[in-house]
Amino acid sequence: MLTRNCLSLLLWVLFDGGLLTPLHPQPQQSLEAEPRENVVQVPGRRSSAQRVKRGWVWNQFFVLEEYMGSEPQYVGKLHSDLDKGVGTVKYTLSGDGAGTVFTIDETTGDIHAIRSLDREEKPFYTLRAQAVDVDTKKPLEPESEFIIKVQDINDNEPKFLDGPYVASVPEMSPVGAYVLQVKATDADDPTYGNSARVVYSILQGQPYFSIDPKTGVIRTALPNMDREVKEQYQVLIQAKDMGGQLGGLAGTTTVNITLTDVNDNPPRFPKSIFHLKVPESSHVGSAIGRIRAVDPDFGQNAEIEYNIVPGDGGNLFDITTDENTQEGVIKLKKPLDFETKKAYTFKVEASNLHLDHRFHSVGPFKDTATVKINVLDMDEPPVFSKPTYTMEVYEDTPVGTIIGAVTAQDLDAGSSSVRYFIDWKNDVDNYFTIDATEGTIATNELLDRESTAQYNFSIIASKVSNPLLTSKVNVIINVLDVNEFPPEISVPYETSVCENAKPGQVIQTVTAADKDLSPAGQRFSFRLSVEASNKPNFTVHDYRNNTAGIEARRNGYNRRQQELYFLPVVIEDSSYPVQSSTNTMTIRVCRCDSDGTILSCNVEAIFLPVGLSTGALIAILLCIVILLVIVVLYVALRRQKKKDTLMTSKEDIRDNVIHYDDEGGGEEDTQAFDIGALRNPKVIEDNKIRRDIKPDTLRFPRQRPPVEDNTDIRDFINQRLQENDVDPTAPPYDSLATYAYEGNGSVAESLSSIDSLTTEADQDYDYLNDWGPRFKILAEMFGEEESYNPDKVT
């Protein structure tokens, strides 16, 4: 009862005494205004004492967020002790939201919120209040600052800012294996009530996974979850505020969880036996079939290695893994032959490459299957008995000699005959031939080992029943050497001996060379020829190792007596037939010092002064040679000049007949006509045919009667002209023959100016006009003095 009375007295003092004006019936809101110069009087007491206080003391105001009422929300009331309620005080408001969010009654000081507020947008507002005298406009109190806080309500649900989530966990993981942690955020005030207190739970995804309600950690809830059974899981997570109580707001997100693969499954063949059919013509190394073992695992856990179990037929085949399909590819290691074996059986093992030790207890991670291969018969080409053939033949073997044979057979069930022929692309020279039926190879030309020592060509065999099926083999023929070349001395063929040589002294060691292919152990023997063995100058010492020494037999040699010696050496080989040759060596005698060093080998050096050096001797010889050349050139020029003078002299008159219409050799052509017989009429020209033309037919020589001495030259010339006119082989053009014989007692005297005692001025050629038209041209030529030329007559 006492407590109640005390509380009532306190409230009366606060409200009735003017110390505090109530703002709102809510206990959280309060405004305290203390009068600066006012005395508070308490009822029932008298006191003359006065207490001076501040005019304004502010606390914070509170306003609810998200207010949805029709009237403005009342916030609180401002009041000053100086306000007597007669309208002399005016209240003003400034700061955050003044006039836009908050308004104040200037007379009463009531504050209202004129729109809905959101704490998450702005949690508080700072404002300033002041009391002003209406008449003077002067502040009655200093300006004071206060805060209006927006009181939070639960208007925001939790949100997963990172959702939806993706996570993975290995399959076959134990219970409680960590998967992922999720987090939800609530925008409400975490310091006021339970609006921001979030609790997590699973709405979808049980019983596979669980979540911690406070931390949001997701873990596995079932053991041995198998990826091969189910790989993807979608879990729905809820976050609820208010501590999960009824009425709280909630948000959800999705977590996609994938089970990753582990090697928990061994490979398995879908069947125990695989059947393959392979043609016998399959090439070595080719793929002849595929088999596959199934592994439900994924990635490297599903990688399979295949191996052939040693056993029947396994050595003919090999198996590899196709990395893309994980299939076992069976390949052929050796050729198949249907006629030899028609079927093969072996086992193949498939195993994982990457094992997981946690699952060894499950069993061996491998499987085995049987592979049966049936060989199919194919029409195959002939098969040679050897992969290559090597034959030998001696050079110069007669053409047609058989040197060997090749053999090919058809191994198919229905055996066919085989035909042989040479691949001419490789044997263009056609040195050999082959029998098409027997396969024998014979020479087609003479062979020379020194020209070609080996022949390499191909023989092709084809089936008669199917010529398109062919096979080829390589044939090598080595040409063997026949001892046909004699051995010869290797260079040098010339050597020297000192004048002071002693008997038995070796002056040169010689070796031999043979163009033939020397067999192993070939031996050459050296000896002097029979005619040289009796001379006491030199001898040949055979060392019996294919070398020999030339030895001196005399005690010294004299260059003045003999400078050169020729030593015939006979060399024989040891092949069959034995070949030998005589090689002549030239031995020059030289002057040497006491140590055997050669000083000079020229015999001229004997007669030269001892004091002259070699350079001086060479200079003297060059001078002599130059002088000789100058003398020879001088003599040649003199002769040439003298010859030109004789040729241009008018006194050099010769009897020459020139045919200007003849395309022969000119004046120096002495083969066109032979006028030697004309100089002596007694010479009978038997079987003389004209050499300036080639007659069409042979004619018998004309028999000319001898001309007697003192015969008139006119009759002689007429006789010759008549003979030429009736001659059927004479050329069809005019020809003039001049005869040097003039006879005795000629009226015209001599026609030549040779040995003539008269000069040109004494000659008179007018009589030529009397000889008739045949000499008209000659008369005109000799009748004109300025054109006179006794050497040319046309």
From TrEMBL:
SUPFAM superfamilies named among the record's database cross-references: Cadherin-like
Compartment list: Cell membrane
Keyword Kinase: no
Signal peptide: 1-25
Topology within the bilayer: Single-pass type I membrane protein
GO biological process: adherens junction organization; calcium-dependent cell-cell adhesion via plasma membrane cell adhesion molecules; cell migration; cell morphogenesis; cell-cell adhesion mediated by cadherin; cell-cell junction assembly; homophilic cell adhesion via plasma membrane adhesion molecules
Transmembrane intervals: 606-637
Entry GO CC: adherens junction; catenin complex
Domain Cadherin: 80-160, 161-269, 270-384, 385-489, 489-607
GO molecular function: beta-catenin binding; cadherin binding; calcium ion binding
Swiss-Prot/TrEMBL keywords: Calcium, Cell adhesion, Cell membrane, Cleavage on pair of basic residues, Glycoprotein, Membrane, Metal-binding, Phosphoprotein, Repeat, Signal, Transmembrane, Transmembrane helix
InterPro entries, A to Z: Cadherin, Cadherin-like_dom, Cadherin-like_sf, Cadherin_CS, Cadherin_Y-type_LIR, Catenin-bd_sf
Functional summary from the UniProt entry: Cadherins are calcium-dependent cell adhesion proteins. They preferentially interact with themselves in a homophilic manner in connecting cells; cadherins may thus contribute to the sorting of heterogeneous cell types.
Protein name in UniProt: Cadherin-12
Species this protein is from: Patagioenas fasciata monilis
Gene that encodes it: CDH12
